[in-house]
Amino acid sequence: MFTGIVQGTATLVSIDEKPNFRTHVIEMPDEMLPGLETGASVAHNGCCLTVTEINGNHVSFDLMKETLRITNLGELVVGDSVNVERAAKFNDEIGGHLMSGHIMTTAEVAKILTSENNRQIWFKMRDKTLMKYILHKGYIGIDGISLTVGEVTASRFCVHLIPETLERTTLGSKKLGNRINIEIDPQTQAIVDTVERVLAQREATLDALLPKA
User: Fold this and answer.
1) What does the record give as the function of this protein (predicted)?
2) Which of 67, 95, 123, 174 fits 5 for a cystine, CB–CB 3.0-4.6 Å?
3) SS3 content of the chain, % helix, strand, coil (to 5)
C-alpha cells in the first residue's frame, strides 16, 4: 500500500527492452535507499513495481506486458523522471489517501490554466466508463500523487496544484497531450458499485411486482 505522498523523483538511466517486457533502472534518491532490498515495492508514477536488483543508487525493476499496456511507463525513455514512493509502513503518517499502486487507466492532459501560486490541470479520461467514480472533492491518484478532484464534467475532471506539488513531482513539467496514470479511490468505487447494485435489485423487484400485461 501507498499514501500518494510522493517522496521524490527518480531519473530513468537505462532500459533493457524485450518483446512485451522491459527492465528499467532508475537512479533512486539517496534518502530513499536506507533499508531498500530486492523484493521491496516502489511506486513509479503510482504503479507498484518490485525491486529486482540494487547497484548503489541504481535500482532495477521489471515491467510486464500488462503494465506496459495500461500505464504510461512503457512510454518512458532514458532521461525521463518518475514520481517514486516506497511502500507505506505501519505507524506511518497517512498524509494523502490509501492507494494500492494498481493503475486502472490513463488520462490525457487536456487543458492547463496557470495563475499566481496555482495551476489547474484538466484531464480527459481514456476510459470514460470510469468517470462515475470521479466525484467532486473526492480522492484520486494521478501519477502516484494523492489529489482532490476539482470540477467534473461528463468526460473530464480537473485538479488544483500548489507550488509545492509542482516542485516536488513531475506534474510541474506536464504538457498538453501527455498521458498520466490514474488510480481510482477504492472506497469511492465500492460505494458507487454498491449503490448501483442496490438500485438495480430494487428495480428488478418492482418489475416483478408489477402486473403483467
Assistant:
1) Catalyzes the dismutation of two molecules of 6,7-dimethyl-8-ribityllumazine, resulting in the formation of riboflavin and 5-amino-6-(D-ribitylamino)uracil.
2) 95
3) 25, 40, 35
Q: Single out the residue of 94, 5, 89 nearest to residue 46, CA to CA.
A: 5
Residues 147 and 177 in one domain: yes
pLDDT tens digits, 80-91: 999 999 998 776
Q: How far apart are CA 199 and CA 111, in angstroms?
A: 36
Q: Are residues 21 and 58 in the same domain?
A: yes
- Separation of alpha carbons 148 and 134, rounded Å: 10
Place 94 in a pLDDT band, splitting at 50, 70 and 90.
low
With CA atoms as reference, report the closest residue to 79 among 143, 22, 15.
15
Contacting residues for 34 by C-beta, under 8 A, at least 6 apart = none
Q: Residue 94: helix, strand or coil by DSSP?
A: coil
Task: Give 29-76 pLDDT, tens digit per residue.
Answer: 999 999 999 999 999 999 999 999 999 999 999 999 999 999 999 999
Q: What is the CATH number of the domain that holds 74?
A: 2.40.30.20
